Amino acid sequence: MSLEKEVKLYFVRHGETHFNVEKRLQGFCDSPLTDKGIEQAKSLGIGLSDIEFNAVYASESQRVVDTARYAIGHRNIPIITDPRLKEMNFGVLESLLQTEILAQYGNILETLFSLKDLNLSAPEGESYLQLFSRTSSAIDEIIHKHKNDGGNVLVFSHGVTIGNYLMQLAKMSRYIHHDNCSVSVLKYLNGEFYVDKIADTSFRDKYYLK
User: Is residue 207 pLDDT above 90, yes or no?
Assistant: First the structure.
């Protein structure tokens, strides 16, 4: 039996999008990166330039694929997309303004984002437990693919997807917000996970002119 080597996963939330600026709920729906979002992704790439990555995975949402492309830059690494890395499905709330949601559904967002009940979901959307299940299946496959060789792997995804996965995996008491192009680092070795960084913006901000 071959010995496993440490796999270090660098989770990255996508750059700022037009829906982020407009305060629209953005899950399965999509919107383009803003100019700021593009600069965030490019700056992140420079911040990660000293780290060698063996592979890059990304949600199939265009905002995430674009973030990955800008961040990778001239590195010759293919981007492997996986729909299981997509953002939480917010059902009927998708693409609605926060003010519209408040008017039509009351305090549903406050209840949903309190994360007090992981079975909660938006109408016709998915729950936090369902989201964790599909995210875990993708991450488990990535780890299985790389654990014999070890090394660093980039995973571009979404704020709630990354935050929920780490919260449930590490059994944290609360959800931590992930800013655009923030980085969370997860180490895996011999069946054990260790969270090294959560929502770290230093890679992005080191070369980013706000």
Answer: no
- Average pLDDT score over residue span 120-125: 97
In a 3-state reduction of DSSP, which class is residue 54?
Answer: strand
Q: Is 14 a catalytic residue?
A: yes
Catalytic residue among 87, 94, 126, 146: 87
- pTM of this structure: 0.96
Choice among 14, 146, 158, 178 that is catalytic: 14
The pLDDT assigned to 208 comes to 64
Query: Which regions of the chain does DSSP assign to beta strands (E)?
Result: 7-13, 53-58, 79-81, 151-157, 183-189, 192-200
Q: Which of 1-15, 69-83, 96-110 has the lowest mean pLDDT?
A: 1-15
What is the rounded distance in angstroms from the CA atom of residue 71 to the CA atom of residue 99?
A: 33
7-205: which CATH number, 3.40.50.1240, 1.10.1410.40, 3.20.20.70, 3.40.630.30? Answer: 3.40.50.1240
User: Could you tell me the two tokens for 183?
Assistant: 């980085």
The ranges assigned to domains in the chain are 7-205
Q: How far apart are alpha carbons 148 and 73 in whole angstroms?
A: 27
Token pair in block for residue 89: 């499905």
Q: What is the tens place of the pLDDT at every residue in 157-197?
A: 999 999 999 999 999 989 999 999 999 999 999 999 999 99
Q: Please tell me the distance from the alpha carbon of residue 20 to that of residue 26, in angstroms, as a whole number.
A: 8
87 labelled catalytic: yes
Do the Cβ atoms of 177 and 35 come closer than 8 Å? no
